């Protein structure tokens, strides 16, 4: 089932999410719905807060990036096969040079900005079967994970922009929260009801 994606301005996107237990109700169904929602919106990652749930869960499938001709063959191969679920994740370490890349977010349609992030991360998490992993990632895979991880920490990519950039996009962000945006996927707008 395709779930509505929560738009910028909803309080759930600014909350630090809570850990879940292995017995979390209907977890398999939630994961299936989240993957379906992410694919329907042409995303490469989706966090539970983006579907209104303040829990430490996100998923990633970087396959769409693997079609970028500007990337090396090795990078494209790594991106093609990277599909994972991250539960109760904690980034242990962020290392390497900070580098800039244009990011967008399903909760903030029509806004794309350059964001600086560290090149390499070490992360501890549980997969969909609640098997624990500690792994290291770099490049675009690390960036997608960092972006989704920020969601479970209550951080949006727009929070990482300079004050000047934030001022420049303030009107667009307000419009998104009111539902004045064209997205080709289901969304839930926090202020849309109040203005009707």
From TrEMBL:
Cofactor(s) required, per the database record: Fe(2+)
Record's keyword terms, sorted: Hydrolase, Iron, Metal-binding, Protein biosynthesis
The keyword Iron belongs to this UniProt entry's keyword annotation: yes
Catalytic residues as annotated in Swiss-Prot or TrEMBL: 148
Transmembrane intervals: none
Protein residues bound to Fe cation: 105, 147, 151
Statement: the UniProt record of this protein carries the keyword Protein biosynthesis: yes
EC number: 3.5.1.88
Cofactor binding note of this UniProt entry: Binds 1 Fe(2+) ion.
Catalysed reactions listed for this entry: N-terminal N-formyl-L-methionyl-[peptide] + H2O = N-terminal L-methionyl-[peptide] + formate
Record InterPro entries: Peptide_deformylase, Peptide_deformylase_sf
Single GO MF descriptor: peptide deformylase activity
Family stated for the protein in its record: Belongs to the polypeptide deformylase family.
Described function: Removes the formyl group from the N-terminal Met of newly synthesized proteins. Requires at least a dipeptide for an efficient rate of reaction. N-terminal L-methionine is a prerequisite for activity but the enzyme has broad specificity at other positions.
Protein name (record): Peptide deformylase
Organism encoding this protein: Aquimarina celericrescens
């Amino acid at each position: 089932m395709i779930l509505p994606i929560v738009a910028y301005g909803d309080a759930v996107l600014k909350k630090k999410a809570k850990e879940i237990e292995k017995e979390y109700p209907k977890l398999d169904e939630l994961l299936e719905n989240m993957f379906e929602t992410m694919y329907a919106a042409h995303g490469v990652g989706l966090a539970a807060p983006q579907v209104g749930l303040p829990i430490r869960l996100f998923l990633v499938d970087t396959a769409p990036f693997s079609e970028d001709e500007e990337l090396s063959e090795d990078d494209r191969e790594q991106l093609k096969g990277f599909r994972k679920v991250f539960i109760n994740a904690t980034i242990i370490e962020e290392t390497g040079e900070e580098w800039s890349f244009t990011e967008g977010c399903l909760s903030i349609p029509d806004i794309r900005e350059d964001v600086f992030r560290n090149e390499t991360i070490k992360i501890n998490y549980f997969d969909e079967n609640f098997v624990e992993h500690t792994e290291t990632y770099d490049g675009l895979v690390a960036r997608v994970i960092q972006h989704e991880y920020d969601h479970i920490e209550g951080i949006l990519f727009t929070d990482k922009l300079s004050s000047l950039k934030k001022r420049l996009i303030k009107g667009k962000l307000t419009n998104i929260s009111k539902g004045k945006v064209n997205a080709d996927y289901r969304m839930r707008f926090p202020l849309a009801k109040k203005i009707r």
